[in-house]
Amino acid sequence: MAIEPTAPYGPGDKGAEAAVIDVRMLLAALQRRRWIALATFAVCVALGVIYTARAPRIYSATTTLVIERSAPEVLSGVRDVYDLGTGNYWAVKDYYETQYNLIRSRPVAQRVLQTLGVSTLAMVDEINAFSASHAADDVPKELAESLAYRLKVLGLGAVQSRAALVRILEHLDAADIMSKRISVVPVKDSQLVRITIVDPDPELAARIANAVASAYSDVNLEQKVDLTRSAVDWLHGQVAELKSTLESSELALHEFKKTNSIVSASMEDKQTIVVQTLTQLNQELSAATAKRIALESRRDQLERVLKSDVPADAVEEVLISPIIQNLKESYAKLHQEESELLVRYTPEHPRVVATQAQMKVVEQALRDEINKIIRTLEDQYRTASDTEKKLRSAMNGVTTEALDVNRKEIEYSRLLRERDNNKALYSLVLNRQKEADLTQMLRVNNVRQLEPAIPSMRPVSPRVRLNIAASAAVGLMLAFLAALLADFLDNTLKTQEQTERILGLPFLGIVPSIKHERGGADDDSFRDRYILTHPRSSVAECCKTLRTNLMFMATESPAQCVLVTSSGPREGKSTTVMNLAVTMAQLGARTLVVDTDLRRPRIHKSWGLANDMGVSSLIVGEGSVEAAIQRTEVDRLDVLTCGPIPPNPAELLHTEAFKALVGELRKRYDRILFDSPPVVAVTDAQVLASVVDGVVLVARAGKTTWQAARLAKRRLTDVGAKIFGVVLNNVDLSDRRATHYYEYAYYYPSYQSE
């Protein structure tokens, strides 16, 4: 969780595995920083308890109203002038939103103040009296605190100074204060509304809530009555005006009928008479025309017959005439008789001549009768033609009259329509006026109080359980964040993955934390000799693992001379040197520990050896190697101490004599481990790194910063040193960030018992 530089993950990282490790790291961070977390949690809870204990007790009172969308219908069929919430969904929604704002309006607040009496509202009296008689510099501290508290209760916000309090009071009004105190909450899917008032006095809260309900009901009814009264006044004026307009339209219609001689009930009747007359004339004209055409046709046909050799019998009038038929029969008999006489007599015979004379008489009579028929047809034709002309003339006159009636009908319809519209409008307004008069007298309200407010002795604020629970919840959250933040800001190396990712060096192993069995402070000698006194401990096993990993790091050229160093002091390099040397000696290798820390030597103290001759003595040519090397209680493990501390350690290590000493030691031992000063502090380790086979860099878990470790690595690589890897010292195996190997080594039964 510490702030680290960006670096790629190792090849073995998996997405799901990383997610699990992240959770465990968070829990581990919380465990490591538990005291910070507990302190943060305790402070939050304590603040919550203090705030709850000091907060003023506030009580609430609630009354329930029923706001119906229409008032009760006392008289059937009589509608209110003031339309309430009837209509579609949006009209109803707008109506109720208007009512909610009306409850919180100044008129309602002012009526509440009038109902209760301003003197009953102690806080308003005190505020108004104060604002009228005090200046900012004259406000006593106790009074200012009291007024500030009251303003906070009223929902006007916290006042930071007495001058700000005075500025607020200068522009404060009792009605404004009251309106801000009214809380309106509609009950979903109903016509119920809850009005809630909060106050330090439960009795006063109930009185104000009931007063608000009563004031709103009265204001609502008064608004309805006022609107109805205004509507009634307007309707009275409209009725008088419409009555005068109706009378004028009726008079205009009468004058039009009088002028145009319309004596029937309506213009439609006269129009009907004209239409009927026109229809009858049209029928008669059609008949007369047909008759005239027929007579003309028969007359012309008879004249054509007479002018030609066609027999007259072809004409219908001749054919049906009884006189002509009798004459034709007589003529036929005479003609037959003539024929018979001519058979017996000559044409000059008197009987023949007499018969022929009779035939001529009959023939002349027949011709005269036909002419008479023609004259009759001619007379009938002239009569029919005259009748047709008269009918056509009459029809033209009636048509002209019909067009004139149609023209007059337009004006008549306009006047009639105007009269009817005025009459209907007058009737409508007159009826509505009567309904409004009745509504004004009824005074029926659509608002009623369902449940009055009653005083409650149980405060609504502060809510003790909720405040404590909220404080605990906030405390837990802040405690977790504080622990994570503290761990996030920790820039020290703690885990194998972190160390490998940041330094980019092989990880050789860990050295677990070593504590005194009595639980006291750590002791250098106790730690350096720990695996001798605890050979089956997890520390011993980890050192053996470190030894194995180090041997595998140099398979081609065995690491005979190894420098063990660190970036800073007190990071465990000397402990690592001693424990690693013991494990190598136990494996059968001739092992030598060389204390090249010529500034603060420690190896001789841990093993209880003399330090009058050592490395510094051999470099300057005093004594021999055999005399300087000292045996230890561990087989095949020797120690070459520092010797007297020189004034110029770096210069001594940089001499050819030191290189020759190292060459001599290589001939005598299989493994040589060099203890040195920190890399970052002095240059001794850089000088030593140039004469050994490789370097082991020790970092102390939870102490060595990644910046220092990186600097140590860079200084070693600058001189061409080969770094075998990193050892993480003083690792707390109970830390959840430890790898699976750490857990296995720590929790293995034999090591646990040890």
Q: What labels describe this entry?
A:
single chain, 754 residues, alpha/beta, 28 helices
Which range best describes the helical content: under 10%, 10-25%, 25-40%, 40-55%, 55-70% or over 70%? 55-70%
Tell me the fraction of residues in β-strands, as a range.
5-15%
- How many whole angstroms does the radius of gyration measure? 67 Å
Stretches where pLDDT falls below 50 for ≥5 residues? 6-21, 119-124, 739-754
Helix segment tally: 28
Tell how many strands the DSSP assignment holds. Answer: 12
Quick one: overall form? Answer: elongated
Averaging pLDDT over every residue, what do you get? Answer: 78
What distance lies between the first and last C-alpha atoms, to the nearest angstrom? 32 Å
Secondary structure class reads: alpha/beta
Strand order of the largest sheet: 5-12-11-6-10-7-9-8
| Main pleated sheet | 8 strands, mixed
How does this model look, in words?
With 754 residues, this protein is an alpha/beta fold. The chain contains 28 helices and 12 strands. It has helices at 15-32, 34-54, 89-103, 106-116, 122-133, 141-153, 162-170, 174-181, 202-259, 267-307, 316-320, 322-344, 350-442, 464-488, 496-503, 524-528, 530-533, 538-552, 573-586, 603-607, 615-619, 625-628, 649-653, 656-668, 684-689, 706-718, 740-747, 749-753; strands at residues 59-67, 183-186, 192-199, 447-451, 507-512, 561-566, 591-595, 630-631, 637-640, 671-675, 694-700, 723-731. A hairpin with a 5-residue loop joins strand 2 (183-186) and strand 3 (192-199). Helix 2 runs antiparallel to helix 14 and helix 4 crosses helix 9 (202-259). The longest helix is centred in the middle third of the chain and has 93 residues, at 350-442. The model is unreliable at 6-21, 119-124 and 739-754 (pLDDT under 50).
